[in-house]
Amino acid sequence: MNTDILHYTTRSSELPWKPLEEKGIDTKGIFVKVLRYDPNTGRAPVILLKFEPGAAYPYHNHPGGEELFVLSGEVILEGHTFAAGDYLYTPPGFKHSVTSETGCVVLFSIPEEVEIL
């Protein structure tokens, strides 16, 4: 194990926002910063997502559950609005879509790949 703490540090303010790209999914207006990449699974289980006003992510399932923390703005899941400072845990198998009327930045922890429904 690497014992240098900086090996495990991501300075998100130094990362550019990149358009979220997922094959076959309209992700217009959604941007991502990868905070942690797992080379063993080939995916990023911890990310920041930025939604421009009106952006939406389609209805999907979380086989491994999900945790999110709203850093700024407002995000809507299952008809409920979550604002800066709100935390949400969704258990494995929870299904929902994500939209933002105002725009937002959200921290996501997603241990398993989502399934678009």
Automatic annotation (TrEMBL):
Occurrences of domain ChrR-like cupin (ranges): 10-107
SUPFAM superfamilies (alphabetical): RmlC-like cupins (SSF51182)
Gene3D superfamilies cross-referenced by the UniProt entry: Jelly Rolls (2.60.120.10)
Domain of life: Bacteria
Name by which UniProt lists this protein: Cupin domain-containing protein
Native species: Chitinophaga solisilvae
Lineage, highest ranks first: Bacteria, Pseudomonadati, Bacteroidota, Chitinophagia, Chitinophagales
